[in-house]
Amino acid sequence: MSPEPTFISRVATLRRSGTRKHPLAIGGSGTNFLAAICCAVALGASAQPAPPVAVSLGAYAQALQSPARIAVDTAGRAYVTDPQAGQVVVFDAFGRPIATHSGFARPLGIAVDVQGKIYLAEEGTGSVSVFSEQWNLLYKLGQGNGEFQLPNHIALDAGSAGNTVYVSDSKANTVRVYIGATLDHTIGSGGTSFGKFDFPSGVCASANNEVFVVDQGNDRVQVFGAAGNWVRAFYLGSTKVSGRSQGAFLDAAGRIFVADSFQGIVKVFNRTSGVLLTNVAAFGKLPGQLDSPAGLAIDNLNRMFVTSANTHRVELFGLDSFIHLTIEPAAVTIAAGTNLTLRALTGGAGSFTYQWLKDGNWLAGATNGTLTMPSVTLSHAGSYSVVVSGPAGTFRSSAASVVVVAPPRILSEPASVTVLRGSNGVFTVSAEGTALNYQWLFNGAGLAAATNDTLVLANVEPFQAGFYSVRISNALGSIGSASASLTVTVPPAIMDIASSGMDTNRLFHLTVNADLGFAYALDTSTNLFNWEPLLNFTNDVGLIEFIDADTTNYTNRFYRLRWIP
């Protein structure tokens, strides 16, 4: 298919007016690899789409070193590749990091299909791996490792079902097209003429089976048919050459967005005519500004995600009519008594309506853009989402999981105990709170495996005497109990009635041999069942003789010696 002559004439004139510059490397590696994730959408009906209205919505920054590519799934989760860290960081629709997957060899391009499968390119292995939603490896494209010289960017077919996969192999100057895991055909080769590439970076596929390739070294976007036939092209620079065009995506309004990492902007073109409509953002390090933007993506809430490598964050922009979700506080787990606020920010022309849901059920009266829950209790825990209707349609947000945790509180302290050597010592604490963890301490040091609300010390020995306490914790913090003492009592080793006998005066004599320093009781009985105390004493002298002058009153008289702890 040949392009219209007037279109070629126009772009050729613009091409001559620019000044060519060699692409610059980003990040100091000397490897020209950056691109972005793009999505496949339907061609807009308007011949000349309006420039987008972009609103800065903040940034995702936590856990990122040098973000390169980004993809979003149907639940609004963002997947960000970080080649310097060798990892992929996943954020939920509210911008909270929920997972980090490490151990990759400079991960670059990434895409996610509607079934949740993840396509990940690794520069270090020259491969594209396909993972399940749980990050289990399913297969690799082609021959696996070594399939690509530089797998820079991944795009899926218009349905995003993974039936057709496009991979820009930048060093090989081709775009490789796969049906499932099998190579079907390649697009382009090295060169400057139409249909050839000089370091292809971004790639996107439209619903009408057109393939858009950002031809970085030639400073243009080339468009191909589904079979790889060249259709048309337009240049990215006019009086000011772009120099380092990166990733791109197509939107439903008939526009193509291209990251210009050299100028720190996102350029927006009419994807049919190539007319520049506007620029989004500006170069800089302030919020809403870009420094080396590379990766682009758009979600179903009309939010544009831009990786800004040299500011170590992902900037968000609302385009035209958009929905943006926030949660305060940002933590997944919050304390009982905390004020919780969920917000659905909207932008663009027209009115919006809201309906909040908890665990899939409508919340009565929750029809504003903000849902506020003061002093939350455990009953507020659950999964929250919002249905928003506006000019662009009706959207249901991904869920915000809210876990309400009661902080630990001690109801009763452990009590001091005195136990006999060889018996059990038991300490108990009573506490309330959510998901409590216990750690008992002996004289301030933690006891191994002592992690229950009750501490049982079996067969205690004197060396275990001391002070015991417990530290109780959960996700909100910890609290320590008061100390309770353990006293271990050791019984006497010798305790004996050494001799006994009646004298001539009919007085009964007993000689007691017992360890010094202990208290004892001498008891009497007439039947060996009912015992009565005769006397109590402490042995300070060794052998002790006792005389029972009352024996004449009994026919039978029995004696026993007893230790008093």
Description:
The chain has 565 residues and is mainly beta. It has four domains: 5-20 and 35-320, Neuraminidase (6 Propeller), CATH 2.120.10; 325-404, Immunoglobulins (Immunoglobulin-like, Sandwich); 409-489, Immunoglobulin-like (Sandwich), CATH 2.60.40.10; 495-564, Immunoglobulin-like, CATH 2.60.40. Strands 26, 28, 29, 31, 32 and 33 form a six-stranded mixed beta sheet that branches. Strands 35, 38, 39, 41, 42 and 43 form a six-stranded mixed beta sheet that branches. It starts with a helix and ends with a strand. 39% of the residues are buried. The model is unreliable at 1-46 (pLDDT under 50).
Short description:
The protein has 565 residues and is mainly beta. The protein is built from one helix and 49 strands. The longest helix is centred in the N-terminal third of the chain and has 13 residues, at 5-17.
List the defining traits of the structure above.
mainly beta; Neuraminidase; Immunoglobulin-like; six-stranded mixed β-sheet; 49 strands; 2% helix
Tally of helical segments: 1
CATH superfamily of the largest domain: TolB, C-terminal domain
Mean pLDDT: 87
Overall tally of structural domains: 4
Task: Briefly note the structural class of the backbone.
Answer: mainly beta
Q: Segments where pLDDT lies below 50 for 5+ residues?
A: 1-46
Q: What is the CATH C-level name of the largest domain?
A: Mainly Beta
**Strand percentage:** over 45%
Shape: elongated
Major sheet: 6 strands, mixed
- The total count of strands amounts to 49
CATH architecture assignment of the largest domain: 6 Propeller
CATH-derived topology of the largest domain:
Neuraminidase
Assembly annotation: single chain
Fraction of residues in helices?
A: under 10%
Based on CA atoms alone, the radius of gyration comes out at 40 Å
